[in-house]
Amino acid sequence: MIDLLQQSAPLAAACAGVLGLLVGSFLNVVIHRLPRMLEREWAQQAAEQRGESTAPAPPFNLLVPRSRCPACGHGITALENIPVVSWLALRGRCSACGTPIGLRYPAVELATGLLSALAIGLHGATLTGGGALLLTWFLVALAMIDLDTQLLPDDLTLPLLWLGLAFNLGEAWTSLPSAVIGAMAGYLSLWSVYWVFRLSTGKEGMGYGDFKLLAALGAWFGWQALPGIILLSSVVGAIVGIGLILLARHGREVPIPFGPYLAGAGLLTLYFGDAIAAYLGLR
After folding, report:
1. 91's torsion region: left (phi>0), alpha (psi -120 to 50) or beta?
2. Distance CA 223, CA 217 (A)
């Protein structure tokens, strides 16, 4: 099967697209539940620090309980959980109570499927292609979680960093020394910006999760890719931020998550890194 996928790039991309649709469905669960799992954990730790006894909470993780309609509690069946297709068949509504199902769910599934197909289409059914899939899935989840909660959980950013170093043991994208320096430089660059901004204004300009995400991208692509990633994410972030302030009356004091722009820049680097670096004169 691997030989067949390696010999047929269209077939490999198509299979990756289908796999991406399935993973996208799971990522919707991760995006929704992981922040709530962390909130429960933090609340329990805070209660323990205060010396309070708490009753055991019902299981809540990425697998339990089964997905349900938040309005009526109807359990989602297997036929109602087919990526994109089920949403279209149900016309975007719960089969039991008719409550609208957000367009974002099939959008995440479709985006993950298309990005997965692109990853394998560009990198092939190889170990590097497998790494490209993992990086794509992590970045989709991180971007959406940060967009919702302004959190970039360590549960995702730190494994992503170590995976980048692991893949570059075999120089999948860069040499191991370049990856290690990239992880350090990625973290320290935004950490420095954070402290300069905080000391000069008394405010926090970004969160520590942003440092860790850029460190992870440095571990995947090496320190040479960091200027392009920072430039791309900063320019897009500035344009979107100004647009929100001018067009959507988004208050200047309301924070705008930076993680989605870093994730977007990471995906562009994954797919078109060499072309972008050449265009920016970084290679």
Report:
1. left
2. 9
